[in-house]
């Protein structure tokens, strides 16, 4: 039982199949089914230099001519956060968010970014808007010593409305194979270090747009506006993770994106352990609590749809936790690892007491 005597999330107290996120247009269960279908389609052939990746955040490919290094690649988008940016004509952060998201994904397997490629699709090309979007990518790439190697701009009237667009990107990095975290070493009593989220990052926006109307975006909220909270940056965790790796043995990491803590952490752990989180150990950003309250989100919904204030997790030996916390201001112990038996859930979250 959690510290406030409210039940933790487990499958037996999950809601029905159509949760708040699905009603807003995004079905996580359907997405998981699609991934399973992809694996079935692709399972008949595998390139001999393709290596297994932890949790699927990035794909590993053995560096040609080397037995001890691998290229790491990942591709992603910014989600429907772009609709808010487009409506408000605030384009400067979109490219920044995109590159940071991709950097975090390949960081899960310890990779350093090498180069990035962007893909911009628009209904009607506005050179000023396109330049602002790509400039954001360039700033974030430069901050990581990562080359913005090229991209594609596609004008697609009929697919996109005149002022609408989509921005996606692909990153390629490199890692020494002996630096890839050994998630099979995760064991009971290990600590889970959390790095704070500053907002929704790039997930949960279909739900946010359903719950917070366009008419409210410029209204005051949490010392700024709803728009400011919704467009808060998706930060890079690269520097903070490297600081922790210098002082602690990092066994597994997860970037908390779509699927929240419940799905992203579980897929980076071996089958014999489970992660236990206590929400009282960190602060939830106001925008998350606002969505929880407006949507009356169940425990399962909030921790599977939103990051709930945890942007990135690292599993370290309990003895290394103090050094990890000292290395990164704002880091916190979000939970711990226990043994898992039978069909127990791989991730359990104890929610904090409600005021």
| Overall structural domain count | 2
Annotation field: number of helices? 12
Mean pLDDT across the residues is 91
Q: Give unreliable regions as ranges.
A: 1-7, 9-17
User: Termini separation (Å)?
Assistant: 18 Å
**Helix/strand order, N-terminal first:** HHEEEHHEHEEEHEEHHEHEHHEHEE
The proportion of residues forming helix, as a percent range, comes to: 25-40%
Indicate the radius of gyration in whole angstroms: 20 Å
Verbal overview:
There is one protein chain. The protein is an alpha+beta fold and 355 residues long. It has two domains: 11-30 and 182-350, PurM-like C-terminal domain (Phosphoribosyl-aminoimidazole Synthetase, Chain A, domain 2); 47-179, PurM-like, N-terminal domain (60s Ribosomal Protein L30, Chain: A, 2-Layer Sandwich). The protein has helices at 20-23, 28-42, 81-88, 92-107, 127-143, 205-211, 226-230, 238-247, 260-264, 286-295, 299-305, 321-327; strands at 50-51, 59-62, 69-77, 112-122, 147-155, 165-176, 191-196, 220-221, 224-225, 252-255, 273-278, 310-316, 332-339, 347-350. The strands form three sheets. The protein has a six-stranded mixed sheet, with helices on one face. The chain has a six-stranded mixed sheet with strand order 10-12-7-13-11-14. It has a two-stranded antiparallel sheet with strand order 8-9. Helix 4 (92-107) packs parallel to helix 5 (127-143) and helix 8 crosses helix 12. The longest helix is centred in the middle third of the chain and has 17 residues, at 127-143.
């Amino acid at each position: 039982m959690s510290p406030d005597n409210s039940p933790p999330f487990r499958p037996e107290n999950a809601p029905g199949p159509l949760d708040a996120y699905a009603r807003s247009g995004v079905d996580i269960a359907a997405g998981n089914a699609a991934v399973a279908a992809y694996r079935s389609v692709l399972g008949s052939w595998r390139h001999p230099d393709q290596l297994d990746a932890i949790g699927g955040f990035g794909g590993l490919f053995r560096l040609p001519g080397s037995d001890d290094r691998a290229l790491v690649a990942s591709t992603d988008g910014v989600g429907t956060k772009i609709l808010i940016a487009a409506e408000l004509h605030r384009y400067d952060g979109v490219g920044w968010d995109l590159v940071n998201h991709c950097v975090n994904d390949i960081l899960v397997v310890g990779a350093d970014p090498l180069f990035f490629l962007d893909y911009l699709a628009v209904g009607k090309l506005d050179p000023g808007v396109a330049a602002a979007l790509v400039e954001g990518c360039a700033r974030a790439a430069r901050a990581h010593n990562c080359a913005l190697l090229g991209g594609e701009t596609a004008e697609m009237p009929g697919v996109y409305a005149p002022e609408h667009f989509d921005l996606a990107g692909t990153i390629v990095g490199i890692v020494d194979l002996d630096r890839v975290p050994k998630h099979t070493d995760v064991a009971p009593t290990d600590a889970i270090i959390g790095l704070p989220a500053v907002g929704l990052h790039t997930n949960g926006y279909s739900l946010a747009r359903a719950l917070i109307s366009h008419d409210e975006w410029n209204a005051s909220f949490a010392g700024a506006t709803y728009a400011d909270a919704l467009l808060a940056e998706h930060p890079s965790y690269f520097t903070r993770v490297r600081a922790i790796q210098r002082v602690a043995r990092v066994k597994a990491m997860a970037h908390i994106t779509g699927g929240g803590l419940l799905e992203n952490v579980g897929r980076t752990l071996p089958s014999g352990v489970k992660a236990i989180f206590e929400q009282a150990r960190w602060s939830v950003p106001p925008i998350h609590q606002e969505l929880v309250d407006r949507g009356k989100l169940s425990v399962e919904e909030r921790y599977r749809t939103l990051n709930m204030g945890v942007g990135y997790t690292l599993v370290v030996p309990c003895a290394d936790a103090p050094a990890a916390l000292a290395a990164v201001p704002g880091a916190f112990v979000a939970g711990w690892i226990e043994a898992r038996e039978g069909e127990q859930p791989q991730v359990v979250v104890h929610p904090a007491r409600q005021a």
